[in-house]
Amino acid sequence: MDDLYDCADDAQLLTGMRLARVAIGRGDLVVIPTDTVYGVAADAFQPEAVQKLIDAKGRTRQSPPPVLIPGIPTLDALAAEVPDEVRTLVAEFWPGGLTIILPAQPSLSWDLGETHGTVALRMPSSRIALELLSETGPLAVSSANSTGLPAARSAAQAQEMLGDSVSVYLDDGEGGELASTIVDATGLLTEGGKLRIVREGVISASAIRDLIGADRCE
């Protein structure tokens, strides 16, 4: 387990973060803690790296990974349009467990799979994830597990499933039991359209409806 680094140990944290940055830069995969379950990460702007992520999980290009970002300014850089309801949601729930699907900027030079012109964005609250994101930029991140198996709640669990397909494992203790809540906000950009809750996770559907209004949600 030489490629697993305990982030509670200062020396291992420094080494692990340095090696994680190097791995991301050369297009390799890194397992990182988030505020929900552990994630396997790749440079969102390296198509070969994203394909490695898809292959490691045993998925297809029809299941593109979400993108983790270091802050709200990056939301505006990556999304073509951000409706007011989304700004209300991110003000309340970011950093945190809410993933939001929006139209992607058409000028972006990336290939996340069959996204149909959209991108799923989230700003996590994990200190380790945010520090790495601040140095690498946006990362394509999916739950750290093989497709069909439970999401990893520790770096060791992720390593059991993903093995040598990942270069560096960053361990920051046990993660949460639930993944992020995913909402599709593209409908809000059409007249009379509504936000759709794709997957309910750590943030309840009722909390979202209470914040932006039940009439704005399907």
UniProtKB/TrEMBL annotation:
Keywords linked to the UniProt accession? ATP-binding, Cytoplasm, Nucleotide-binding, Nucleotidyltransferase, Transferase, tRNA processing
Reactions this protein catalyses: L-threonine + hydrogencarbonate + ATP = L-threonylcarbamoyladenylate + diphosphate + H2O
| PROSITE patterns (alphabetical) | YRDC
Which Enzyme Commission number(s) are listed?
2.7.7.87
Where in the cell? Answer: Cytoplasm
YrdC-like domain residues are: 14-203
Enzyme class, broadest EC rank: transferase
| InterPro entries found in the cross-reference section | DHBP_synth_RibB-like_a/b_dom (IPR017945), Sua5-like_dom (IPR006070), TC-AMP_synthase_SUA5 (IPR050156)
Superkingdom of source: Bacteria
- The protein in question is named L-threonylcarbamoyladenylate synthase
Q: Which organism is it from?
A: Rhodoglobus aureus
